[in-house]
Amino acid sequence: GAVVSQHPSWVICKSGTSVKIECRSLDFQATTMFWYRQFPKQSLMLMATSNEGSKATYEQGVEKDKFLINHASLTLSTLTVTSAHPEDSSFYICSARPFRLAGGSYNEQFFGPGTRLTVL
Amino acid sequence: GESVGLHLPTLSVQEGDNSIINCAYSNSASDYFIWYKQESGKGPQFIIDIRSNMDKRQGQRVTVLLNKTVKHLSLQIAATQPGDSAVYFCAENIRSAQKLVFGQGTRLTINP
To answer: In this predicted model, what pLDDT tens digit does every residue of B73-109 receive, in sequence order?
Structure first.
């Protein structure tokens, strides 16, 4: 259980084009999904927090008009990199936090396999 | 031995030896800590977690130690195997923001 998928697993695009990456929770509902970016030999950096049915919360320094996030259902969030440039080339990873009826601070997240974006 | 590269520290150990990977965290308000394993080209894989009201937790072949006084976390892997080769990240949960902040990571390599 608790499987998160991403599609595509890798994509190569030309500079100036837009790319959409999907993140799906396959066997659970996720009210919150997270998008991370990871450059080679570096750690994961949180880009934004996506809540189903509401606007995403972006981390400082992340351009919300460039990285469009949509969380239309409890099992799907999408990240669109608009007008991609070579410096956007990176490994994009999503995670999903299961919906829990009880409150509390537990922030369990299940991670997807990542999407390798290469912008030429 | 342990070395610090341009971005990612590396720990090399002999197969069968125990590995100790260290992590310093920054936020005193973090209530929960997790260790992840990441293999090349893949997403992070959960290893073990620990709540801030604990100082030790054991799993299968792994132990996590938490020292809140010095804001230090460690992951001990017993009898290291070739399949343990990966990059290991610690993460702290910022309770107020409900988000994870990842440490820089350590690459573990196994010598035969």
So the answer is: 999 999 999 999 999 999 999 888 888 999 999 999 9
Alpha helices (H) in A18-115, listed in sequence order: none
- Higher-pLDDT residue of B14 and B2 is B14
Q: Which residue of B has its CA nearest to A49?
A: B99
CA-based nearest residue to A110, from A92, A91, A96, A94:
A96
Task: Tell if the CB–CB gap between A41 and B43 is shorter than 8 Å.
Answer: no
How far is CA B91 from each of CA B48, B62, B111, rounded to the nearest angstrom?
A: 11, 16, 27
* Among B44, B100, B103, beta carbon nearest to A107: B100
Q: Which of A9-13, A70-74, A114-118, B19-23 has the lowest mean pLDDT?
A: A70-74
Residues 6+ apart with CB under 8 A from A102: none
22-51 of B, contacting A, C-beta below 8 A: 31-32, 36, 41-46
